[in-house]
Write a structure and sequence with these properties.
- This protein is α+β, with helices and mostly antiparallel strands.
- The protein is built from 4 helices and 5 strands; from the N terminus they run ααββααβββ.
- The two termini are 26 Å apart.
- The strands form 2 sheets. A 3-stranded antiparallel beta sheet has the order 3-1-4. A two-stranded parallel sheet has the order 2-5.
Length: 127
């Protein structure tokens, strides 16, 4: 697994419903009504700048479970159900990762590129 996934896989933070909706939307055919972009955020000190949609899909599909049982990560993911809690936790956890609505992104976190694209750019895969 690429080094950048190891850095991200220490802690997963996010709302399971948002994560699943974003992934299902990314895999589904285009819809007529424009959907809001979902940002993948990390701590500002995290050296990772981007991730591929395939890596993200593997990560949220349970790749982290294998890492927990193999001892590669120290604890299982934390699920938080509010964007405020997610933002606060990402600011505190260097290895944290969250999926939140792009409109809820505030200073103090870094937005990762997905397949080389930031939210708001044509072709961005997470809606």
């Amino acid at each position: 697994m690429p080094m950048r996934m190891k850095r991200l896989s220490r802690v997963w933070i996010g709302c399971l419903g948002v994560a699943l909706a974003a992934l299902l939307t990314a895999l589904a055919p285009a819809q007529s009504a424009p959907a809001e972009d979902i940002a993948v955020i990390v701590n500002t000190t995290n050296p990772v700048e981007g991730i591929s949609s395939a890596e993200l899909r593997k990560f949220f599909a349970g790749e982290w479970v294998k890492k927990i049982y193999s001892g590669e990560v120290p604890r299982e993911p934390t699920t938080l159900f509010s964007n405020v809690s997610q933002m606060e936790t990402i600011r505190a956890e260097r290895g944290g990762l969250a999926l939140i609505s792009v409109k809820d992104v505030h200073s103090g976190v870094k937005v990762l590129k997905i397949d080389g694209l930031l939210p708001g750019v044509a072709g961005y895969p997470l809606k």
